[in-house]
Amino acid sequence: xxxxxIRHTRPAVDxxxxxxxxxxxxxxxxxxxxxxxxxRLGDVADAAMFSSPLLRCRKLxxxxxxPRYDERLQELDFGDWELLPWSRIDRTEIDRWRADxxxxxxxxxxxxxxxxxRAVAFLEEICAEGLERVLVVTHGGVIRALLARVLDxxxxxxxxxxxxxGSLTRIALRDGRFELQSLDC
Length: 185
Prior knowledge:
This protein has about 180 residues and is α/β, with parallel strands linked by helices. Helices cover about 35% and strands about 15% of the residues. The protein has a domain at about 1-115 and about 130-140 and about 155-165: Phosphoglycerate mutase-like (Rossmann fold), CATH 3.40.50.1240. Helix 4 crosses helix 5. The protein is globular and about 50 Å long. It starts with a strand and ends with a strand. The mean pLDDT is about 95.
């Protein structure tokens, strides 16, 4: 089984704004980013496709094929922090979050550990389907969480990987074991 994790293209949101689960649109140069992603993907006609239902993923997925939407592929829910400039979020709260990103839950949101559990549940489910090739259009946090599972590393270590907008992360499942094939940044 081959799995390609595709991060959405650049969203239409100002730099410095917390926008995890918020349903923001894509930026104006979306078509150019799509051409680049398509060129790097190659032929995807035979691939099953899954996508986060958030607009910035949905638009890319629908251009690439006919996706099945899965709520578990959504980005981290930052709760009360959503759509606030990071500079306006209480510094003490941000420090508490940075001290324990895996377990800390922003007010009204979810922890990275919670995101990891739902992302891994999705991965296990699609692996059980016996698909040959799968495209997953999702978010940076989900990709990092899935890499923790694929590489069998601690969640804290997965935070070092920063998938770029429109990046492709290729993994394979062979004889019950995951292999990382390539990473884009």
